[in-house]
Amino acid sequence: MRNTFFAFTLLCSLPVLASEPSLIVCEPQNTNDQSATGIWPAPYLSKDKLCLDIRADSGDTCVSNGQSTNWFTEAVIVDIDGQPQGRDDTWFRVVHPIITDKTIEYKIEGSRDNKTWGLVSHVSINRLSGQAVDWLIGEHGGISYQCHLEGRKI
User: Fold this and answer.
1) What string of H, E and C letters represents the secondary structure of the chain?
2) What is the pLDDT of residue 68?
3) From CA 12, how far away is CA 18, in angstroms rounded?
4) Cα-based angle 76, 81, 84 (whole degrees, multiple of 5)
């Protein structure tokens, strides 16, 4: 009877564990590449949504396949081509990402006035091989990463 109760409890908890967030951990394929700082903001999956690990003062940092989201973050440090541009309040958005069993692809755009938008990052992750490319603010060719999921272990 005790084993039956344990098995029932385990089976009931599996859907909860499966819905826990799964961090997408990406390491640079070329460990000598000094420009490979990591995919920013770090992506993770939660309840069939792509989420981004960034503080949001308003809005939502999670988005479903083909949908859109935007959020506001105060005091973002801006650096363009290695030149510091200071801190400023910034709106970010993800418009129509592709989230399938085979791929995750999305573009993050930023705006100072919530009207004029510019590309911040374009990320493509092959979920089958783990290979990813991040084109951060106009990089040519992008930076290659090897990614895997990390989440709660059973």
Assistant:
1) CHHHHHHHHHHHHHHHHHCCCEEEEEEECCCCCCCCCCCCCEEEEECCEEEEECCCCEECCEECCCCEEEEEEEEEEEEECCEEEEEEEEEEEEECCEECCCEEEEEEEEECCCCCCEEEEEEEEECCCCEEEEEECCCCCCEEEEEEEECCCC
2) 97
3) 11
4) 45
**What value does the mean pLDDT take over residues 65-94?**
83
C-alpha 120/C-alpha 135 separation (Å) is 8
In this structure, what token pair is assigned to residue 35? 């420009």
Tell me the pLDDT tens digit for each residue of 17-59.
Answer: 445 789 999 999 988 887 777 898 999 999 989 999 998 999 9
Asked if 65 and 23 count as a contact pair (C-beta separation under 8 A), the reply is no
Instruction: Say how many residues make up the chain.
Output: 154
* pTM flag (> 0.85): no
Tokens of 126: 């092959």
